[in-house]
Amino acid sequence: MDRIRISGGNELHGTIPISGAKNAALPLMIASLLTSDTLTLENVPHLADVEQLLRILGNHGVDVSVNGRRESQAESYSRTINFTCRTIVDTTAPYELVSKMRASFWVIGPLLAREGKARVSLPGGCAIGTRPVDLFLDGLQALGAILEVDAGYINASAPKGGLIGAHYTFPKVSVGATHVMLMAATLARGTTVIDNAAREPEVVDLAKCLTAMGAKISGAGTRTITIEGVASLSGARHRVLPDRIETGTYAMAVAMTGGDVVLEGTQASLLENALDTLRLAGAEITETESGLRVVRNGNRIQPVDIVTEPFPGFPTDLQAQFMALMTMSSGVSHVTETIFENRFMHVQELARLGAKISLSGQMARIEGVSQLKGAPVMATDLRASVSLVIAGLAAEGETIVSRVYHLDRGFERLEEKLTRCGAIVERVSD
Ligand code: EPZ
């Protein structure tokens, strides 16, 4: 199993290209199930989660070609991919595939909308929390879907004539359930209004793509999204938006090591809250023509408290990275996680590097230390593992991060991007 070896202590200087967003690419790819025409997505990152979803979509009948070549020949990154689903050949998403990646459960929306039926395995829990699917099921039922649970699967069927538009208010904000409702409602009869919808940029990106495919959607990016159902959708060409979590991660890395880096191809508007927090902590962040410039010169990082919240709040997907940064602040800070109940697995690993963190329920208290020291650590989930890489970059001596397959799910060419900026990072295979 691969590990990442880091010799810490170098500042970062240079340019890091920001990839297309994983969490936008996944629902956009799933949207290809809604049409028999070709959906072309540009700027799709080359990540393990994307490859896994390609397999899942293939199972339903989606034909994939990458940059005009067959999928298996493509090795480049941030690719243009054509998805064509002339007919849905299988409406079952089996446990073996869904259990490997939670977002694959989202196929339930398009399958139900286009074929009137779906049999989709329940995804089960994951390392960061129990992550139920009740909101998906309530929302689809509001559109008239008939659902039953059978041997770990949801058997879903639409009423005769298809799903029916409805007014539905989510009791809690869910990114995934908003994606699914949005996709399902595009082909429903009549008007659907989704209240308390997720406002994440990835939801807006999906709505843009669906609109290019002929859907009638207004209000994406606000709490209320309105969808006028249409009889069918067509193909489209759409560019995946930049990855705001990758952007924030590298910004935090620079804040932690010191240095001067331009994050190319990204936009401040995708993560204003996190950038403002980083500015309070002492990083200088400016927008440039090509993206964002992040500078930290010498001064010690200031402690800042954060609470994770749905967009536009501080993102849970940057919580671990920010905590890594706070381990070397000049005082005491607090990090409160409100989205996932078990998203503090990085705490014990950061402690192995010398961080002083105590946990009380959903809040972590971090007492900054002047220097972390390298150690072997273990990645536990995608964002937790990159927080260990960031900490390792700033730590004195050698840090070895094992179980890096977590990183490969969401960070495209991490070692290469960091090495180009002066970090000493290499992947070692056993
Ligand atoms: C998306 O997950 C992201 N994944 C997550 O990123 C991200 O952390 C999360 O949104 C929050 O921003 C993708 O986009 C692929 P939710 P999702 O439904 O949609 C609860 C990463 O590292 N909930 O918004 O699964 C749920 O348990 C990943 O890239 C219910 O209670 O998250 C959580 O507490 C990790 N019932 C909260 O809502 C439901 O039916 C928000 O989850 C659904 C969700």
Q: What's the quick description here?
A:
With about 425 residues, the protein is an alpha+beta fold. About 30% of the residues lie in helices and about 25% in strands. The chain has helices spanning about 20-30, 50-60, 95-100, 110-115, 135-140, 175-185, 200-210, 245-255, 270-280, 320-325, 345-350, 380-395, 405-410, 415-420, and strands at about 5, 10-15, 40-45, 65, 70, 80-85, 90-95, 115-120, 145-150, 155, 165-170, 190-195, 215-220, 225-230, 235-240, 260-265, 285, 290-295, 305, 330-335, 355-360, 365, 375-380, 400, 425-430.
Helix segment count? 14
Distance between the termini: 6 Å
Residue windows where pLDDT falls under 50 for at least 5 positions: 71-75
Specify the biggest β-sheet.
5 strands, mixed
> What's the shape?
elongated
Biggest β-sheet: strands ordered side by side in the sheet: 5-4-6-3-15
What's the number of extended β-strand segments?
A: 25
Q: Helical amount among residues, as a percent range?
A: 25-40%
Cofactors and ligands? ligand EPZ
> Rg to the nearest angstrom?
22 Å
**Mean pLDDT, rounded to whole units?**
94
What fraction strand? 25-35%
Structural class: alpha+beta
Question: What does this entry look like structurally?
Answer:
With 430 residues, the chain is of the alpha+beta class. It has helices at 22-31, 48-60, 95-98, 108-115, 134-142, 175-186, 201-212, 244-257, 272-281, 319-326, 346-352, 382-394, 405-408, 414-419; strands at 3-7, 12-17, 38-44, 63-66, 69-70, 79-84, 92-93, 117-121, 146-150, 153-157, 167-169, 191-195, 216-218, 225-228, 236-239, 259-264, 284-287, 291-296, 306-307, 332-336, 356-360, 363-367, 376-378, 398-402, 424-428. The strands form 6 sheets. The chain has a 5-stranded mixed beta sheet, with helices on one face. A 4-stranded mixed beta sheet has the order 23-24-1-25. A hairpin with a 3-residue loop joins strand 17 (284-287) and strand 18 (291-296). The N and C termini lie close together (6 Å). Ligand EPZ is lined by residues 23, 26, 102-103, 129, 131-136, 172, 174-177, 316-317, 339-340, 382-383, 410. Ligand EPZ binds at residues 23, 26, 102-103, 129, 131-136, 172, 174-177, 316-317, 339-340, 382-383, 410.
